């Protein structure tokens, strides 16, 4: 299923995923000819907006601001975004590690997703332990949430 995004007329870090940094007042298709089952925007209060989606096969893709690794990618991104000193992507980039997800959720500059066996993986901002891996280190790629025994 095609994905469509709109908005981002003032501050645009590519979170629409259309291949440009222009906002849109009507739905426009997300670039890449991917078939998405789910598309989720980051927290509405997050100025460094990004969006992630799961394809119908469960592959994770993200686009927009990558300030603390919220896109979950090891793909090299330009260090500047729409004239700002910030890495980003205005097209979907694959979440690293090749995991197959069944659900995904986004927060302020971080994301978490669940795989078929119930394990959870998170990536991005971790200054307050958001990633659940026992550290406060940001990560650009998914790390498994550590469940206490």
Give a verbal description of the structure.
By secondary structure, the protein is mostly beta strands. Helix content is 0%, strand content 39%. It has no helices and ten strands. It has strands at 4-7, 24-29, 36-41, 50-55, 60-65, 88-94, 101-106, 110-115, 120-124, 139-144. The strands form three sheets. It has a four-stranded antiparallel sheet, with no helix packed on it. The mean pLDDT is 94.
Give the low-confidence spans: none
DSSP summary: helix tally: 0
**Which percent bin holds the helix content?**
under 10%
Cα-based radius of gyration, to the nearest Å: 14 Å
Strand order of the largest sheet: 3-4-5-6
Category by helix and strand content? mainly beta
> How would the global form be characterised?
globular
Strand content: 35-45%
Alpha carbon gap, first and last residue: 40 Å
Report the mean per-residue pLDDT as an integer: 94
Count of β-strands? 10
Helices and strands in order:
Layout: E1 4-7, E2 24-29, E3 36-41, E4 50-55, E5 60-65, E6 88-94, E7 101-106, E8 110-115, E9 120-124, E10 139-144
Antiparallel strand pairs: 1-2, 3-4, 4-5, 5-6, 7-8, 8-9, 9-10
Descriptive labels:
149 residues; single chain; 0% helix; mainly beta; four-stranded antiparallel sheet; 10 strands
